[in-house]
Amino acid sequence: MNNEAIPQRSVALGGYWRRFGAFAIDMLLLSAVAHLMAWAFRDGFIHLGPHGRLVGGLLFLAYFLPQDSALKGGQTLGKRLLDLKVVDTKNKPPSVVRTLARTMVLAVPVFLNGYYFACDGFAPSWWMMALSCLLSLIVFGSFAAFVYLWLFNRRSKQLLHDLVTGTVVVRASSESATVVTAHVHKIIAGVLCILGIVPALVGTNLAKQIIGQGSFPGMVAAQKEIQTLPEVTQASITEQHAFITDSTGTRENVVLIVTVTLNQKYDDLKPEAIRVASKAISSLKIADNMRVSVIVCYGYDLGIATSSYNMRETHTAKTWKEAASSGLLPDETAAPPSKTVPI
Hints:
single chain, alpha+beta, GMP Synthetase, Chain A, domain 3, 2 domains, five-stranded mixed beta sheet, 9 strands
């Protein structure tokens, strides 16, 4: 970005908390619309799974793009209520193209954060490393730059999406003077964005150390096996280790936790839990006395509106095997052991 002057003066700037209030109003409105859409098309959004965030992103864009641009005077409903507007370097509402870039810089990190990317392999490879670094750069780097600018860029009060596109938020009822953003803020924000790669590098190195150790390779294979079920969109397997102390002494207890997300609504989730448990037990060859906890959930996630329902069943592997034969589970799970200290 070049060193263009931003048309404003200190008293004309839109304060961060005022901007936050306007954004909160806009998001409450968007969330209400998204929930109404999800109520009307619930089954479709559940089937989309994590890809429902794409729908939420398009709704976000459809709301902010016309209103923050010259088409609507640079004012969303929230900005109108709190006397704010977006302007460019000429003190005019920004063009549609500039507003598109501004909205994307804001929206992409928000909707990518927590997005589930399914992949066929779990071992790090060059393309997974590239994807991890890109996502980390976008999500963590943008967040770090946003927080820095919020705390220290008091001169122009521009956040990352403002700096990138040469826009500023001002009080709609105020006159304008000229102020230029300090170069140091642009440089530091850029460095923080680049440093967003660090979490991906650290995470990949940890993954290399974990893979191939203990029971992890078998758990990965079991996870992939569970994901072959047509109704499963996401699956994860973890182990919970604890020390149990009773009259016989102290011993280690291991509980296998299997979590799956389904792509449709079920009136009874127990049959699905049995199917998932059977896949995990057969793949991992679990001993009959080992406890297996299965968490089955379904719902929609649009990024700006979410809803989910889940059920948890915990039994021994032997009970799960018997349930696979009979199609029935006990009405109650075993009580958790007393005096358990998580490792």
